[in-house]
Amino acid sequence: MASFTLSQMGKTKLCFEGFQYVKNKVRGEKTYWRCSKRICGGRAITVDNAGELFDVKTTKEHCHVPEGDEDDDDMDDYESDDNFEMDVSFHSDMHQDSPFRDKLKEKTLMANQVKEAPSLAVDAVHVKSNPIPDGVTVKGYDFNKGVDYEALLKTYHRCGFQATNFGKAVEEINRMITKKFEEIPADKQDKLNLNPCGREKTNCTIFLSYTSNLISSGVREVLCYLAQHNMVDCIVTSAGGIEEDFIKCLANTYLGDFSLRGADLREKGLNRIGNLLVPNDNYCKFEDWVMPILDQVLKEQNEEGILWTPSKLIHRLGKEINNPESVYYWAYKNNIPVFCPALTDGSLGDMLYFHSYKSPGLVLDIVEDIRRINSQAVLAVNTGMIILGGGLIKHHTCNANLMRNGADYSVYINTASEFDGSDSGASPDEAVSWGKIKKTATPVKLCTEATLVFPLIVAETFAKREKEFK
Length: 470
Description:
Elements: E1 2-7, E2 12-16, E3 19-27, E4 30-35, E5 43-50, E6 53-60, E7 85-86, E8 91-92, H1 101-113, H2 119-125, H3 149-155, H4 161-180, E9 205-210, H5 212-216, H6 219-228, E10 234-237, H7 239-250, E11 254-255, H8 262-268, E12 270-273, E13 276-279, H9 280-304, H10 310-321, H11 327-333, E14 338-339, H12 347-358, H13 366-378, E15 383-388, H14 392-402, E16 409-414, H15 428-434, E17 444-447, H16 450-460
Parallel strand pairs: 9-10, 9-15, 10-14, 15-16, 16-17
Antiparallel strand pairs: 1-2, 1-7, 1-8, 2-3, 3-4, 4-5, 5-6, 11-13, 12-13
Helix pairs in contact: 6-11, 7-9, 9-12, 10-11, 13-14
């Protein structure tokens, strides 16, 4: 049954199969109608046959269930220009020869059957929850209590996402530090110091690893603080992580912009590291400083029989720079070994290359260094890894800890994903499969850029506990 109604403003509406339509357009004997609900795309056509006889056909299905011919109590969804309808309807039976007559009856029957939402959908939406015993609720910082950065950072653990991982990283590093100052078990106390670098044994050996860009950035000062106060036991970095520290003692690095064009910078002799700028003259100053040291190192090799390794050369450069702003000056002062298995992959490698033409013969033994770093792990009572970035420095540190069947504590901070199978993106759980992290450990990966969070992590861990390192 189809019918028409007339609104108070005199507009005709079509009621058909429980849906209301408003007139859209008229073309000859055909009138096109659209659903009066704003959100619905339902469409219909009426064809005037003769007098009060007309055919009705739905041309586009509705996105809602039929509402009935009666006025809907909730008119908000309808395109109505008044608050009530005057029923001046006239009713007409479908023309006996209409091809839509049977379909109309079928659809009317179906519409009458769909009075409630499907039980499958209801059950899917209303799945019962199991209770969460002793669950931690999500809650952030309330700035109505004022600006308190220490309190703000403490709320990160309950904030969710990477903020929660930040809180977990703080806890993991604090566990490393606590373990470090616990008394060494009697069966682990050696009469002789077997550490190849001569450092005093503690209950937890902390490995700190970072990529070169962090030395280029302002995180260098944070790393320098850790070395100055003898807070870590072993450092692993790449070639740029060595040379950039010394270069900064000789000349400045400047803030630039990520969008600066490479061609323009090349013409000006400026090298870009992200949004940092390093004048090419800085490397010339580095060459002037390091070449005489390499001459002396070669002389000591030839005359005194000293067997140099990358870590021994870095130790010597830390001594020669004699600058408290340098990370490796403090590593030299506190006898913290610094390992760089790819020392030639950078400006320092360029210097070694040119020096080999000027004064050939200098040898750096990487085999002795791999034995030294692996021994740091093998001879440790417990180990902790703090790894900023990925690639070589990450794998070199983890592989050393494989030699003791895994680190006890681990924190990764990087932005790499594991979908490509790279070591940079490999999760801590993947490292467990290799034996690089112990099965009983609670490692943390913080998926973010280290300059954002590492200074804050140090503030919540090492810096708060500085007196313990005295």
